[in-house]
């Protein structure tokens, strides 16, 4: 009973109590003092020794999934933390090799485990500019799969309406975390896992969101993405399969660096993992998820009038769908899909149609010119009079479209007639392909 009272007293030490402590001698403020100590991100007074002991003890708690016990969640529920608490936890974070928060600018520290804040309550707390890289605010995705569904929510940190302006949250585990109304303006979220998180009303203005996992997340029309960087060469685009977009305005995000969604990047990385054998089912499911992500995003972008960007992701979906067909051993459809891409880019790259048309016309024109000018006489004798280069082009165009304007005096067995018939077949197939792709492009989307 005494231990519980002591724990309760430690749990209830308020930020107001610690803020009354004056700055150390020789310093006008705690901010000035912390800068001198090489911790410019600290702004609050040092917490009391009793509170330090309490937090240190909580940090050593072994998670008990069955009873919902985590470092900052006990039998009474989530433990409320102040900014001063979090600052002290960061400053004393020790993994045996480094002491202090994960410094993401130091590549040697990028594999470190960040601060474990599972179960904590920092709702409405000012956490601006804090170095929270690789923060553990929830279980990782592979751990979640092994947990009972009803127990998953107990481990998540509560960050509702928290001020995370300019915070560093690179590669943080925040799956299913509640972030409703949080301010993440200018925050660095590169590679963070926000799977199935509640992000309604979050402000992502000018935030870095490259490589962020948003799969199954909940957004709303009150989410701000103004200037948010959603892709980069280093981390790829964000992962967005099955996101509940909720009418969020996508037009204001920064799409300039998005060459492919993170969902597709995962597929590519999985394909090049040396020495790791992936099951066919897992590989196929990843490709199908990437197809779904691109299609869903394309639909959302098109609904907001962003047709050019929508076309880009719709095209990527078609390319990935071809991989699905190949993995399913549907060779006929795979070949047909490849031809549609080669000839017309599935209708999203019309310049390919022009290039294909010109290549076929000029190739056959060169063949007609060669045959009629006796270049190939020893092998394929033709009875046609020599054609000028422009006449060969006219013959090629008419043959491509099935008009059959042969030179006079030719028999059906003449190489020119045979070649023209072959070109007419190719022309018919290409025209059918054009019709199919552009019909799908403009009517099926």
List its salient traits.
445 residues; mainly alpha; Pectate Lyase C-like; 3 domains; two-stranded antiparallel ribbon; two-stranded antiparallel sheet; elongated
The domain tally reads 3
CATH architecture of the largest domain: 3 Solenoid
By DSSP (H or I, 4+ residues per run), the number of helices equals 13
Q: For the largest beta sheet, what order do the strands appear in spatially?
A: 1-2
CATH superfamily of the largest domain: E3 ubiquitin-protein ligase SopA
Structural class given helices, strands, pairing?
mainly alpha
Q: Look at the structure and give the mean pLDDT.
A: 85
Number of strands: 4
Shape label = elongated
Uncertain regions: pLDDT < 50 for 5+ in a row? 1-10
Give me the strand/helix succession: HHHHEEHHEEHHHHHHH
- Tell me the major beta sheet: 2 strands, antiparallel
Structure write-up:
This protein is mainly alpha-helical and 445 residues long. The chain has three domains: 28-259, Pectate Lyase C-like (3 Solenoid), CATH 2.160.20; 266-329, no CATH class; 350-443, Helix Hairpins (Orthogonal Bundle). The protein contains 13 helices and four strands. The protein has helices spanning 2-11, 15-19, 30-36, 49-59, 83-91, 141-144, 262-271, 280-303, 307-327, 331-344, 350-372, 389-400, 415-444, and strands at residues 73-74, 77-78, 231-232, 236-237. The strands form two sheets. Strands 1-2 form a two-stranded antiparallel sheet. A hairpin with a 2-residue loop joins β1 (73-74) and β2. α7 (262-271) packs antiparallel against α8 (280-303). The N and C termini lie far apart (67 Å). Residues 1-10 have low confidence and may be disordered.
């Amino acid at each position: 009973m005494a231990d519980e009272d002591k724990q309760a007293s430690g749990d209830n030490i308020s930020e107001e109590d610690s803020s009354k402590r004056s700055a150390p001698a020789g310093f006008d403020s705690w901010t000035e003092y912390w800068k001198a100590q090489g911790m410019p991100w600290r702004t609050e007074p040092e917490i009391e020794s009793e509170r330090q002991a309490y937090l240190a003890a909580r940090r050593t708690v072994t998670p008990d999934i069955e009873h919902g016990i985590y470092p900052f969640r006990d039998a009474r529920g989530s433990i409320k933390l102040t900014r001063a608490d979090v600052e002290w936890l960061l400053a004393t974070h020790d993994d045996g090799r480094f002491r202090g928060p994960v410094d993401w600018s130091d590549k040697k520290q990028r594999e470190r485990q960040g601060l474990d804040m599972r179960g904590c309550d920092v709702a409405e707390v000012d956490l601006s500019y804090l170095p929270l890289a690789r923060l553990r605010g929830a279980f990782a995705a592979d751990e979640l799969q092994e947990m009972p569904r009803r127990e998953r929510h107990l481990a998540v940190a509560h960050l509702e309406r928290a001020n995370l302006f300019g915070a560093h949250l690179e590669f943080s585990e925040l799956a299913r975390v509640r972030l409703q109304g949080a301010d993440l303006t200018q925050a660095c979220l590169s590679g963070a896992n926000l799977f199935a998180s509640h992000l309604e009303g979050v402000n992502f203005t000018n935030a870095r969101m490259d490589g962020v996992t948003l799969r199954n997340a909940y957004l709303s029309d009150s989410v701000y993405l103004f200037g948010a960087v959603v892709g980069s060469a280093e981390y790829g685009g964000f992962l967005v399969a099955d996101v509940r977009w909720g009418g969020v305005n996508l037009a204001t995000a920064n799409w300039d660096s998005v060459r492919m969604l993170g969902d597709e990047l995962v597929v590519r990385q999985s394909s090049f993992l040396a020495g790791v054998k992936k099951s066919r089912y897992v590989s196929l499911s990843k490709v199908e998820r990437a197809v779904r992500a691109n299609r869903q995003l394309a639909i959302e972008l098109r609904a907001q009038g962003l047709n050019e960007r929508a076309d880009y992701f719709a095209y990527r979906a078609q390319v990935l769908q071809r991989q699905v067909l190949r993995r399913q051993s549907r060779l006929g459809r795979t070949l047909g899909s490849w031809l549609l891409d080669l000839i017309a880019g599935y209708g999203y790259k019309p310049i390919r149609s022009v290039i294909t048309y010109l290549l076929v016309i000029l190739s056959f024109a060169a063949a007609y010119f060669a045959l009629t000018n006796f270049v190939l006489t020893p092998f394929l004798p033709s009875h046609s009079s020599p054609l000028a280069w422009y006449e060969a082009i006219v013959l090629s165009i008419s043959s491509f479209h099935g008009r059959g304007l042969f030179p006079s005096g030719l028999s059906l067995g003449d190489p020119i007639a045979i070649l023209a018939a072959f070109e007419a077949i190719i022309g018919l197939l290409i025209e059918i392909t054009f019709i199919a792709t552009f019909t799908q492009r403009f009517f099926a989307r």
